[in-house]
Amino acid sequence: xxxxxxxxxxxxxxxxxxxxxxxxxxxxxxxxxxxxxxxxxxxxxxxxxxxxxxxxxxxxxxxxxxxxxxxxxxxxxxxxxxxxxxxxxxxxxxxxxxxxxxxxxxxxxxxxxxxxxxxxxxxxxxxxxxxxxxxxxxxxxxxxxxxxxxxxxxxxxxxxxxxxxxxxxxxxxxxxxxxxxxxxxxxxxxxxxxxxxxxxxxxxxxxxxxxxxxxxxxxxxxxxxxxxxxxxxxxxxxxxxxxxxxxxxxxxxxxxxxxxxxxxxxxxxxxxxxxxxxxxxxxxxxxxxxxxxxxxxxxxxxxxxxxx
Length: 308
Known about the structure:
Blueprint: H1 2-10, H2 12-40, H3 46-72, H4 87-112, E1 115-120, H5 126-156, H6 158-171, H7 183-208, H8 212-228, E2 243-247, H9 251-254, H10 264-283, H11 290-307
Antiparallel strand pairs: 1-2
Helix pairs in contact: 2-3, 2-5, 3-5, 4-8, 4-10, 5-6, 5-8, 5-11, 6-7, 7-8, 7-10
């Protein structure tokens, strides 16, 4: 029985599933308490409450990651991309990548006549939105890039890990309401998101082997998409945007209720960016083949057996 349990636990998807289930349960059980505590401080604005709940999600995710890395993976957080090395330049490089990607998508939409700015506002919610989206980005990167991608890569190599973790990231957004969209449209959107965002963010991680670049790209992707350019962010709104705009045209060009992420424009630009970054990562020798991953795993297992 013990050998069977060890075999089940050694399968990477088992550990990832366990991590996600525990995280989800802790968030579900603790969130009402956290919201009540936030309310007692006099904070009532929805976006402000959203900010503090995202901070809480980050704290839970980081704590659970630390436990799983130390006990389940018997590794250091730095092995999973959590390191202060090159934090500022890599965060800024991610900020540039995320900003350019969204600006490029919106520019193409504008030229095609499907994105039409109608007004310019003061963007009174920009600060709160930026903070909220930063912590949301950090939390998701801890889950999908730091833990999931690394665990998968350890067993199956980089390319398989990028594909599986990207699909998991994309389809996690099936939980988004997106204005009551149908299951079919959500499925299409999540497929797009797996490629355009999942692959490109995973590629940012592989390129640097740390979380800062994907955090910066993820953060600015969402920030410019919603609070700046005034479009939906994966079907969600984030208060008053800097630019008020109308999206008119075929859903495959506008993304419909999902915003630009649901458009073929974003699909093409985001996926190409991800593939280019993976190619550059290969030149850096940052890609691990399936054979190399299996050999490392075998050597680690043999070392553990000898030590035992």
